[in-house]
Amino acid sequence: MSPTQLTLIAEGRPSPGARAKQLMREAKAAGEEQVTDLLSTVELMIRQAREIADGGEIYPAGVRDICAKLIEHTGYRAQGVYAIMRPNGGLARMGARCHFDEADLLEENLEIGPFPASAAG
């Protein structure tokens, strides 16, 4: 019988599994960053639409109506994204949090993101 040969991976070089985990953490962090950017854009859009909807005679009635509906429909969808991102849901399991709640969508104080850095997962 021949002796068993053992090959060691050089120290300092991560194993393929460790590299895969690191790449997954980076990909998830990039995904959270992109969702944060999207929610920030939605926040700005809702604020601007609210100004137009509440702008009275400055804006045509049809534009005000469309902006009011845009706030309502976009607000519900933003709530859905928020629900996924907050703790115990979706990406939030990695520590992501959103900084607005359902009542904020109806008020002037809508604030979204950024999400804290992800915990190792």
List the helices and strands and how they pair.
Elements lengths: L15 H38 L7 H25 L36
* Approximate strand percentage: under 5%
Mean pLDDT over the full residue set:
75
Radius of gyration, whole Å: 23 Å
Q: Helix tally? A: 2
Low-confidence parts:
90-121
Task: Find the count of extended strands (DSSP E, 2+ residues).
Answer: 0
Secondary structure class reads mainly alpha
Strand count, sense and closure of the main sheet?
Answer: none
Order of helices and strands: HH
- In helices, the fraction of residues equals 40-55%
Terminal CA distance? 44 Å
Principal-axes geometry comes out as rod-shaped
Descriptors:
121 residues; mainly alpha; disordered C terminus
What does the model show?
The protein has 121 residues and is an all-alpha fold. The protein has a domain at 31-106. It is built from 2 helices and no strands. It has helices spanning 16-53, 61-85. Helix 1 (16-53) packs antiparallel against helix 2. The longest helix has 38 residues, at 16-53. It is rod-shaped and about 90 Å long. Residues 90-121 have low confidence and may be disordered.
Produce a short descriptive summary:
With 121 residues, the chain is mostly helical.
